[in-house]
Amino acid sequence: MGRRSKYPQELRERAVRLVLEEKSQHPNETAAILSIAEKLGVGHEALRKWVKQQETDTGQRPGLTTGDAERLRQLERENRELKRANEILRKASAYFAQAELDRRHS
Question: Does residue 54 share a domain with residue 81?
Fold first, then answer.
């Protein structure tokens, strides 16, 4: 279960699109981000991260894409569950092995 975003996905996409479209009208990307963030009422740091992630997803910047990050989270979750199951099975096996030894000695 993912965390609910403070901002709707449509707003995030629109904000990123506006930054990318208006970047040339500002001295640098930071100025564009600050301008758009103020106009849309979103945090400038959040918008900066959205732009960075969009650039990663489109291959313009190195890093983990959104899809890869989700797959990694799924694999990590599955790994935790499997480790937990293995630990339960290991303890159960040891318990029953000890019970069998106790039964043979009695």
Answer: no
Model pLDDT, residue 53:
96
* Tally of structural domains, the chain: 2
Domain membership of residue 3 as a residue range? 1-63
Burial track 78-94 (b if 16+ CB lie within 10 A, e otherwise): eeeeeeeeeeeeeeeee
9-48 pLDDT, tens digit each: 999 999 999 999 999 999 999 999 999 999 999 999 999 9
pLDDT at 84 over 70: yes
Domain with 15 in it: what CATH number? 1.10.10.10
Q: How confident is the model at residue 3, as a pLDDT?
A: 64
Contact 54, 16 (CB under 8 A): yes
Q: How far is residue 32's CA from residue 17's CA, in Å, rounded to a whole number?
A: 11
Contacts of residue 33, defined as CB under 8 A and 6 or more positions apart, other chains included, come to 19, 44, 47, 48, 51
> Is 30 found in the same domain as 15?
yes
